[in-house]
DNA sequence: GTAGGGTTAG
């Protein structure tokens, strides 16, 4: 006897005993196939006409056991629902809830709300939270406000579930004002509502207000901490995110996945490998399982903090991979100058049937420019673009790269043009650099880095009119150059140097060290770049007396605090300049240190007087 | 008689 027949017999027996057993039976379903058996019997036995039984069926579809294919169950539920003559409030709620959630279609929730109102049904305190969730997902703030009015009309605005979902909706729709007004009207906000306010303010970029809420609320739980940490991370306040993670541990609150993503992202952006490793250990210690997003964040952290081998190992162990996890891996390899491997992963990605997106192309383009390759677009296979790199001479013609950008199956965005501009600099192609620079300064006029890069390309070619033109454009548009800074981790402490800032407690000794370094590398053949050329080329402002970029102070401290054979990691916010690059090469040789420097674009691994970028960057 | 809110992150 086959399985479905034995199941059928079981069902028939069960249904004769009516609902409590039906409930049990539904609980044993693990997916659509089993559900269909139950449904078939409900139809045959007319049980489907029983509103309660039909509701149980819908409830199952809306809230299936983990692992079941929720979207297909939702469509099945809708079919069942559409065959019901007069669905009751419960059934509407179940369907509205279903569509509003994961793998659903929030606009259907709103359709159903209209439909139930037409049918003369009155939404209750359960309907509204689902409806607001749908509005939030769609970003329909206006619709949300109208429904808010309905809530007041039916006298439900005092319900805490309704209140928090309303706040959440206003937060997602960017209406922080409405949210704070609403919050002030709530007499006794509970922890969920307080937490939602933390979300509201971090969503609006008002981190101080968010923190104020966080500090003022009477009891915080894991979600609250997580919300505040992610808020900091999302708004670029990485140090604060890590500080808060430390306090969270002191308070013995266990972090969840979302919090860890914020923590890892912060470590990745700061480039703190020590912090990142500690976060990873925390995850292992607390059995926090790697899902797709968390796994990708971990890959990114290791890649951006300089441990590309570990990043690869984590990536290979991920339970699943999507376009973004592939892209993160490819971009990470690109940063480390692992050109061939990056291209290999790109072809693996395409081979796995994962469609690349714009950021993927940016990463591939940067692979090519770092590796002295030019990207070449070939014919499409299975609708996906295929691409490989072809070696180019140093003199490099970039026309093919430019053509690649123009022929890409996605609209080139700022970062793609930016990658091409970087390639122009490497290949010393000022004509194209000028062209691409113009596109970029129009596309993203507020982005100071592109003016600087374009101006450096001109300077290198001796085209001073181009340089002054770009400087003028920057001034006219009020674009500020980002201040250079370098971070170095030594003895478990992070030292930050900002251009022109001499606040480090050991600045005197550092300057002395720098003088010594200068003497010894000069003996090894270093000729500092000075004067006009420097002024026009460097990305960081020239120090009035000495050509001392923040990076040089970091190098000096690194040499000071370590012995021969040590590895010193430095993270910069801008691209490394040619002079610093030269200096670091020489220091690595003369002082027998390894430097792993992360600049805005990529890693430079200095050892024995050479750099892993082979002077392409 | 059946159900629900806040972290959604890379």
Give the key terms.
617 residues; Serine Threonine Protein Phosphatase 5, Tetratricopeptide repeat; elongated; DNA-binding; TPR-like_helical_dom_sf; repeat; E_motif
Report on the structure:
This protein is α+β, with helices and mostly antiparallel strands. Among the domains are: 220-320, Serine Threonine Protein Phosphatase 5, Tetratricopeptide repeat (Alpha Horseshoe), CATH 1.25.40; 341-427, no CATH class; 439-476, no CATH class; 485-611, no CATH class. The chain has 31 helices and eight strands. The chain binds one DNA strand of 10 nucleotides through helix 4, helix 6, helix 8, helix 10 and helix 12.
Detail the poorly predicted runs: 376-395, 530-546
Overall geometric form: elongated
The number of helical elements comes to 31
Separation of the first and last Cα atoms: 69 Å
Residue share in helix:
55-70%
* Estimated share of beta-strand residues: 5-15%
Q: Kindly state the mean pLDDT as a whole number?
A: 85
Strand order of the largest sheet: 4-3-5-6-7-8
Number of strands: 8
Radius of gyration: 30 Å
Largest sheet: 6 strands, mixed
* Structural class by secondary-structure content: alpha+beta
